[in-house]
Amino acid sequence: MSLRGAVDLAAVKAAGEAKEKAQERARTAREQGAPVASSAVLDVDEASFEQEVLQRSASVPVVVDFWADWCQPCKQLSPVLEKLAEEYNGKFILAKLDIEANQALAQSILSQLGVQGIPFVLAFVGGQPVPMFQGAVPMEQARQVIDQLVDVAEQQFGIVGEPIGESPADDAEESALPEVPEDPALAAAHDALDRGDLGGAVQAYRNVLADRPGDEEAKAGLAQAELLQRTIDLDPAAVRSEAAENPTDPQAQIRAADLDLVGGHVEDAFGRLVETVGRVFGDDRNTVRVHLLSLFEVIGTEDPRVAAARQALARKLF
Fold this sequence. Notes:
By secondary structure, the chain is an alpha/beta fold. Helix content is 60%, strand content 9%. The radius of gyration is 22 Å and the shape is globular.
């Protein structure tokens, strides 16, 4: 097996470059006069809820503030949430929903969750609802809950936001930084992968991550090496036959998806697991969801196919 290009990995380093691309988008938007900073807080209604909340939550946690003009506690809580949204600068988006102007939508959501009063704050991550709190809460309590939300979004869903606004001084400082040479440990891991030493590559990437848990390039390399390690001894015909005969067997579908990805059939791999998420429940659903997120790491979170799959996953989960 030729490992270089065995998976469609033109974006092997895409995860590591995500921050730079986000910063570039922010700079471009600022140069074009777009209201970058104000996008941390937005008003949503029944017409925009699907796009601005559910679809947007595939790439950034969205916190929904259910409020009404007659609600005095809402007037205490809303400024707290707005201040935090600006402070967190893109780690989450605050969407404000006026329940009086959008009664059908608000009633549908609140009744499903058994909520009878406002203010009520509900987050969406990857299209999945995450209840936050009900009633007005102080700033520090709200901050603690949002910190937990941001951590859950990254650890369980692989979803992180991106900076909304940056100062020109920050841009100049970043551009003045010297280029950092490639880390020898990371280079050794890449070389092991290219040689077909999968065990050595896995260990080398893990060593890098032990020192730098946030190294996106090492995460992507480890995901690729583990994928190849899982599939190298599989019988493709047997795997595909088993998957066809057992559409609700999580492990059968996972093995087939892995083979799809190794063969370069990225959309097929993602689509198979998204459909399986829609067929199974409980622990089986979570197993498939988590594996799908690991395949996103292989391709790179900036790849448009990953964004499309995240949206499809969100529709299945919610």
